[in-house]
Amino acid sequence: MSKVSDKVQVDKLSKFFKSSVVWILGVVLTLFVGVVSLEGTLSSHVDGITAKTTKAAVSSFIPVVGKILGDAVDTVIGCSSILKNAVGIIGVIVIVGICLMPIIKLTTLMVIYYLGSAICQPIADEKITKLLEQMGDTFKTLLAILCSVSVMFIIGVTLVVKISNSGLMYR
C-alpha cells in the first residue's frame, strides 16, 4: 500500500510482520526437530522392549511349540521391518515429488516479479518498481515457509521409519 499511495505508509509495519514471521518460523523449526528427536529416542526403546516381551511371552507361555513360535514372531517382525523400509523410502520420494511442484511455482512467480521490477525500472514510476520488488520479497518469504514445512514433513516421515528400525535393534 505504501508503494501506491503517498498518504498511507505501512512500511515499518510490513517489516515488523516480515521479521516476526521469520523468527516464528525459526522457533517452530527448532521446536519441531527437538520434540521429534526426543520422541523418536524414547519410542524406539519402548518398541524394542515390546518386541522382546512379545517374543519371551510367546516362547514361555505356549507349551511344546513356544520356542518355534517365538522365532516365528522374530521373523515376522524382521520381515515387517523390511517391508516398512521399502514403503518408507518410496513415501519419502513421493513426498519430495509432491513438494517440488509448489516450490517450483513459487520460485517462478518470485523470479517473474523480480524480473518485472528490473524491466519496469527504466520505463515506469519508482513506486511500481518498488511494489513489484516487494511482491517478489513476499513470494521469497512464502517460499521459505513452504520449504521449511516440506523439510519438516520429510523429517517426520524419515524419523517414523528410523523409530521402528531402532525399536527392532533392541529386540
Main beta sheet: strand number and arrangement? none
Uncertain spans: none
Total count of strands: 0
Q: Helix/strand/pairing class, anyone?
A: mainly alpha
Number of helical runs?
3
Beta-strand proportion: under 5%
**Structural domain count:** 1
User: What Rg do the Cα atoms give?
Assistant: 26 Å
Structural summary, described in words:
This protein has 171 residues and is mostly helical. It has one domain (11-169). The chain is built from three helices and no strands. It has helices at 11-61, 66-120, 126-169. Helix 1 (11-61) runs parallel beside helix 3 (126-169).
Task: List descriptors.
0% strand; mainly alpha; 171 residues
Secondary structure layout:
Elements: H1 11-61, H2 66-120, H3 126-169
Structure described in brief:
This protein is mainly alpha-helical and 171 residues long. 88% of the residues lie in helices and 0% in strands. It has one domain.
